[in-house]
């Protein structure tokens, strides 16, 4: 394996909380002064003269009332002055307590009652009253917001080395990838889903009696949406109803075409975490066993291989398929009533509609039947989804990045009839498709290498998968041609982007094997084995 596995110290992903010293807030209480004052006889004599003089001009009763009023006013002013100072001290004290960090180990746990002192001006002298104040915990985030590796982590400074100077090998090759250790990748699996821009709820079209009045394209499996319905499906809204295969029957795989045994469907609905899916139709490939898969992944990840009846018969005869319905880590699921005569188009159903076959799964990894998985799925998900805060990842084509070039290459290789390819490209040109250029950056390619798809099952990525499948159902089965049109239409309305990893990074965790027919051809071309001649002389022991 060409991957670079680097460790992370335990607990380094959560922000460390710094302890703060919590100082008590002292709330001073005014107490009456106990200092004794000495009488001044002269002062009293002067006051007595003043009182006698005032009594001459007014009655004694009025004088007493005036003095009482003056004393009351003085006391009132003094109380206001002292009270203002106390209120300021009270305000400052509460502010200190409110600013204490909730994660401080010295503060009460969240959702518990914290007791604080509050000064209330109820009488003189001032009293202190104990009052309970509920400290509300911070609301947890509603969506997964991503993370960054801690400073100094080797993967932060990792960069691709220059390719080896091997002139004899100029084709595509794998390159190193910085994976984190398995246990850390498992610990970093998000507990909550990622954010889905704009669209929050998807429902799918169900038609028992199909309306086939459409301009062109469509099928009994995917329905016959009109061009107006197609345009409406790109008007991204919070709640949407759209075509997404399986338009007939009670649920996907049950009377819909691409039919699956009820027991298998029940087991598929139980997959609530990670799914690894693949398919072989027409006995076209040999099942490749995954390598470097941890025991934890074998217990917690659903590995499903979809096959048709022809492949099932071949596996029973040559591949060791028995009543356990398992070959290595792969659970073999036989699909009947395939909806298309084109095997490649049938393969797009489990590839693009994984979220419909596994309605309760959170993440999925699709790999073509000819590929051998050599890195643990949790490490792949961590590297290309969780660490980059992406919800859909696919590799770029190793050589081509322009749709027009891809179309010409498909025609030259006879991958589909030329007229259908030209019709599809011309249709996209009328909608605004242009050759790829640097003006599209940060988008780095319009052409994917679609043999591997890594995704999180949330509404926006499910919408992309549905609309991409609808293009494959309406036009040609060459999904590389329709990929950028669907991606760019959704991005224009939502800002959602696809993580397009390097082709050499994809080749790091899957190894491409030959199709079965190529293997048979190579076996025929191999030179015959010549055994060395044996000696005619007998040997007596």
Automatic annotation (TrEMBL):
Protein name: TOD1/MUCI70 glycosyltransferase-like domain-containing protein
Short name of any one Pfam family annotated for the protein: TOD1_MUCI70
InterPro entries cross-referenced by the UniProt entry: TOD1_MUCI70 (IPR006852), TOD1_MUCI70_glycTrfase_dom (IPR048354)
Species of origin: Gossypium mustelinum
Region (Disordered): 1-39
Membrane-spanning residues: 65-83
Record carries keyword Transmembrane: yes
Record keywords, A-Z: Membrane, Transmembrane, Transmembrane helix
PANTHER family listed in its UniProt record: ALKALINE CERAMIDASE-RELATED, HEXOSYLTRANSFERASE MUCI70-RELATED
Chain ranges of the TOD1/MUCI70 glycosyltransferase-like domain: 202-515
């Amino acid at each position: 394996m060409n991957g670079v596995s680097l460790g992370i110290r335990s607990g380094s992903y959560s922000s460390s909380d710094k302890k703060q010293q919590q100082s008590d807030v002292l709330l001073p209480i005014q107490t009456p002064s106990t200092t004794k004052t000495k009488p001044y006889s002269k002062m009293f004599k002067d006051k007595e003269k003043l009182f006698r003089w005032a009594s001459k001009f007014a009655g004694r009763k009025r004088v007493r009332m005036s003095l009482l009023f003056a004393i009351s006013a003085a006391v009132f002013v003094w109380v206001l002055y002292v009270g203002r100072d106390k209120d300021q001290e009270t305000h400052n004290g509460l502010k200190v307590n409110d600013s204490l960090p909730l994660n401080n180990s010295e503060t009460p746990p969240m959702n518990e009652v914290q007791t604080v002192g509050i000064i209330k001006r109820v009488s003189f002298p001032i009293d202190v009253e104990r009052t309970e104040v509920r400290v509300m915990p911070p609301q947890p985030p509603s969506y997964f917001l991503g993370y960054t590796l801690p400073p100094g982590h080797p993967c932060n400074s990792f960069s691709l080395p220059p390719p080896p100077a091997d002139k004899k090998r100029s084709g595509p090759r794998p390159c190193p990838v910085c994976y984190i250790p398995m246990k850390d990748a498992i610990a970093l699996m998000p507990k909550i889903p990622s954010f889905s821009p704009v669209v929050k709820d998807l429902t799918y079209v169900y038609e028992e009696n199909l309306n086939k009045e459409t301009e062109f394209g469509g099928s009994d499996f995917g329905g016959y949406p009109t061009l107006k319905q197609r345009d409406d499906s790109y008007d991204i809204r919070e709640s949407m109803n759209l075509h997404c295969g399986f338009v007939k029957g009670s649920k996907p795989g049950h009377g819909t075409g691409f039919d699956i045994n009820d027991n298998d469907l029940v087991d598929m609905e139980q997959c609530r975490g990670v799914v690894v899916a693949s398919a072989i139709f027409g006995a076209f490939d040999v099942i490749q066993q995954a390598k470097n898969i941890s025991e934890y992944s074998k217990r917690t990840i659903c590995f499903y291989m979809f096959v048709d009846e022809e492949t099932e018969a071949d596996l029973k005869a040559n591949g060791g398929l028995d009543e356990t319905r398992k070959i290595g880590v792969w659970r073999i699921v036989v699909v009947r009533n395939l909806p298309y005569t084109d095997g490649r188009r049938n393969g797009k159903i489990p590839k693009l509609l994984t979220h419909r076959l596994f309605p309760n799964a959170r993440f999925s990894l699709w790999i073509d039947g000819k590929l051998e998985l050599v890195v643990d799925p949790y490490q792949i998900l961590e590297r290309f989804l969780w660490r980059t805060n992406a919800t859909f990842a696919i590799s770029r084509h190793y050589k081509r990045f322009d749709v027009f070039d891809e179309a010409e290459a498909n025609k030259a290789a006879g991958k589909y009839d030329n007229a259908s390819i030209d019709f599809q490209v011309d249709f996209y040109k009328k909608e605004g498709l242009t050759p790829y250029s640097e003006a599209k950056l940060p988008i780095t390619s319009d052409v994917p290498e679609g043999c591997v798809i890594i995704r999180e099952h949330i509404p926006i990525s499910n919408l992309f998968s549905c609309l991409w499948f609808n293009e494959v159902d309406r036009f040609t089965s060459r999904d590389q041609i329709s990929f950028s049109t669907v991606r760019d239409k959704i991005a224009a309305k939502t800002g959602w982007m696809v993580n397009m990893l390097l082709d050499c990074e994809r080749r790091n965790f899957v190894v491409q094997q030959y199709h079965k027919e190529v293997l048979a051809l190579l076996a025929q071309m191999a030179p015959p084995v010549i055994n060395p001649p044996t000696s005619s002389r007998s040997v007596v022991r």
